[in-house]
């Protein structure tokens, strides 16, 4: 019953209030900063980058972030409950938990830097895709008149392949993190068994 009440309160406060407010605030800040920019900004910034910011970044905040935040909070609650239960049953386990906690911090810090770079690569390789689509649609009669359809198709495939390679890197980084975290968890499980 207590878990149900805390889950409901967490869902209401974090998702219904916090995420909606954060999304609205981010969109307003992006909107006013882009449309308040000088004309030279629009000359130097590709339109694909603007489309990427307003579509992909807002999608992350509106759709992916709430799910990840809910999973993170739920895992943290479970972790605290399990940790307290283990320490109450076997207080000597603290000797194993302290070094493993340091290992967790080291592994997560390595992952964080690599993940941030991989995310940056994904964003950088997504921008040309949006840019090519918007420019191709704007100049569609010219593209057809000069017969550049095949050239644009090949270039689009190259850009999509580059983007998917960066997406694969993100998946591989997640597998790297998962393997190391499970190894550290195995150490705690083994210590509990002894």
Could you give the count of β-strands?
A: 0
Helix/strand structural class: mainly alpha
Quaternary organisation:
single chain
Largest sheet: none
Number of continuous helical runs: 6
Approximately how much helix is present in the residues? over 70%
So what's the overall shape?
A: elongated
Report Rg.
23 Å
Helix and strand run: HHHHHH
Low-confidence stretches: none
Cα separation of the termini: 33 Å
Mean pLDDT: 85
| Strand portion | under 5%
List the helices and strands and how they pair.
Blueprint: H1 2-35, H2 39-44, H3 47-89, H4 94-138, H5 140-146, H6 149-193
Helix pairs in contact: 1-3, 3-4, 4-6
Sum this structure up briefly.
The protein is mainly alpha-helical and 194 residues long.
Features:
194 residues; mainly alpha; 6 helices; 93% helix
Q: How is this structure best described in words?
A:
The protein has helices spanning 2-35, 39-44, 47-89, 94-138, 140-146, 149-193. It starts with a helix and ends with a helix. Helix content is 93%, strand content 0%. It is built from 6 helices and no strands. The chain is mainly α and 194 residues long.
């Amino acid at each position: 019953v207590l878990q149900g009440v805390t889950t409901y309160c967490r869902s209401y406060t974090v998702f219904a209030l916090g995420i909606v407010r954060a999304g609205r605030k981010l969109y307003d800040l992006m909107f006013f900063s882009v449309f308040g920019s000088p004309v030279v900004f629009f000359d130097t910034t590709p339109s694909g980058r603007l489309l990427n910011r307003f579509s992909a970044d807002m999608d992350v905040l509106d759709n992916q972030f709430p799910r990840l935040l809910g999973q993170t909070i739920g895992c943290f609650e479970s972790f605290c409950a399990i940790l307290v239960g283990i320490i109450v049953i076997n207080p000597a386990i603290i000797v194993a938990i302290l070094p493993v906690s340091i290992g967790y911090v080291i592994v997560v810090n390595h992952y964080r830097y690599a993940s941030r770079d991989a995310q940056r690569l994904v964003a950088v390789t997504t921008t040309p895709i949006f840019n090519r689509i918007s420019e191709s649609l704007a100049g569609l009669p010219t593209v057809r008149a000069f017969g550049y359809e095949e050239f644009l198709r090949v270039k689009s495939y190259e850009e999509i392949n580059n983007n998917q390679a960066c997406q694969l890197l993100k998946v591989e980084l997640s597998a790297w993190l998962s393997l190391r975290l499970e190894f550290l968890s195995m150490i705690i499980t083994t210590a509990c068994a002894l």
